[in-house]
Specification:
Helix content is 21%, strand content 29%. It has 127 residues and is of the alpha+beta class. The mean pLDDT is 97. This is RidA family protein.
Amino acid sequence: MSKKIIFTSAAPAPIGPYSQAVMVGDTLYVSGQIPIDPATGALVNGTIEDEARQVMLNIGAILKEAGLDFTNVVKTGIFLKDMNNFAKVNEVYGQFFTDQYPARETVEVARLPKDVNVEISVIAVKD
């Protein structure tokens, strides 16, 4: 098994003992991303839409570093602090996909790292 660690300064550095992403063969596993601005290292404060957008931008930067983009994403996991934000997060999320949407689950959780409102992870496959 060939395993390659993917890292980019265009996304937040890991805050624990994990990688931003790991490429195994043609499959990329992207760790859950939270709304941290990689330029400042600060949490994005604002609306849930602002948070979701930053999460998706972080994911996009990691995908790009691996030579992929959102069209390569086959599976996502969305973790919400409050399921009442589902529609707002879904609207932002949908702006990053045009068709052939990935499989997905969305769950409400009791707490997320740094007490953020949303975290998203993805799996992508090279064409």
